[in-house]
Amino acid sequence: MPSNYTNEQKAEIAKLYKEKFDALMATEEGKKMTEADVLKLVQEEYDASQVADTLEPKRATGIIRPKGADESAPTELKTTHSSRVAFTATTDEAGTNAILETQLRTNMANAKSNEELLKNAKDEDVELAKFISKLNTGQAATESSGFRQRRLSTAQRIEAVESEAPQREKRTTMYAANELGAEETEKFTPFTNSVLGKFSCHGIEPANNPSGVHDKINQDRGCYVYPFNNSEEECLFIVLDGHGQEGDKVSEFAMQQIVVTLETHPMLANNPGSALIDTFETTNRALSATQIQYYSSGCTCVTVLMRGGTLHIANVGDSRAVIGSEKKGRLKAIGLTRDHKPNDPDEKARIVASGGFVSPPPEPGLSSRVWLDAKFKMIGLAMSRSLGDYAVKAVGVTATPEITSHDLTENDKFLVMASDGVWEFISNQEAVDIVQNKIHLGSNVACEELIRIAATRWQHEEGDYRDDITALVVTLPMVRS
Hints:
The chain is α+β, with helices and mostly antiparallel strands. The chain has eleven helices and 21 strands. It has helices spanning 7-24, 28-31, 35-48, 114-117, 124-136, 247-263, 272-286, 345-353, 420-423, 428-438, 443-462, and strands at residues 90-91, 97-98, 157-165, 168-176, 178-179, 196-201, 204-206, 213-215, 220-225, 234-244, 297-307, 310-316, 320-327, 330-335, 357-359, 369-371, 379-381, 387-388, 402-407, 412-418, 469-475. Strands 3, 4, 9, 10, 11, 12, 18 and 19 form an eight-stranded antiparallel beta sheet that branches. It has a six-stranded mixed beta sheet with strand order 5-6-21-20-13-14. Helix 1 packs across helix 3, helix 6 (247-263) crosses helix 7 (272-286) and helix 10 (428-438) packs across helix 11. The model is unreliable at 50-109 and 142-168 (pLDDT under 50).
């Protein structure tokens, strides 16, 4: 959205966008349009109406504020999803639109499987050569800072209709993590807030404005799917953390494709671990059939398939899954995953053997990074496994997940899944302690508290920078509403 629109004009455009978007999504032609297409159409219609543009321009910050709030005041972390907030349409410096007026709804009924998408996959060797050429000529990001561009996003509820067999229709509903502070919009969910909490909090970064910060796009995603695989004994949980210029798109794509592909995988019934591995790998390859900038963008992904009393876990990157389990009268943290860092001995050996280079952490508490060159100039990815990030796949950064399993016992009280916005300054055990102190008030309250404390740690440690934070807290055993 051009920066010369005023506050009032942007509000009008946001309202028009909502109306236009809802109307178009009800038509077959409209479903083929992207957010950008709809916004461009709305802007053209608005400009043609010759609305006066002499008011003071609005800075494009992407801040979410309560209605009537002072725009010059510093932002605060919202902690109750019952508080009403006003959403505005904003833009980042590159002109990418961020529509926040309404909850985005994506229809997965026409979602294609990875197998279908791979029919249109690009030649990886050719595409990599093109990308390396851009790196060498300065036309593409060459430093790790290129992996930190984000803009604000909204939570989603996504519905899909898939055919398990010709004679049987199956409806899959994905319940996505709500932006913390946004009003709850779900009329019905299979689990109450006391059983399952799911929230996401967008990050912030320094800005030249009165508050000193502005909101980044939330590249995190989190969701659960129930019933999964048309079974009331199965539930799927996913947390993803995007990075790069289009990390939010990678996270969104991966979240949808993992659900669609895993649910119909032929090995899911008898070998869920193998099904998860193949789903991750084909989802990664299917990115090459999209228009997403998958060479310099990617995401982490931790997925937990709960089948009866067993958890099947797949993980790439540094998002985590942790169980709070009672032992000798106290809850102990049981890590279901490990972070995939480039300086881990096994991970580093694979990268070096593939021709990549690993730089040491610049200081304690920071991550080592993967590079394409010995001078540490090209890329600099802070993890050794991910989805996307095609530029470093040839040097050992793999999309193959690490698979673990856990048999639940009566001592296991809750499951915590979160992006590294939580784990950067909070250990597994501390996260369990935080959740334990609040879970008697409900999983949603415990989830909010975990995110609130994580955000406070970011403020104390980094000041005007905060990563996106997403968490799911699940009380065990799960009881349907």
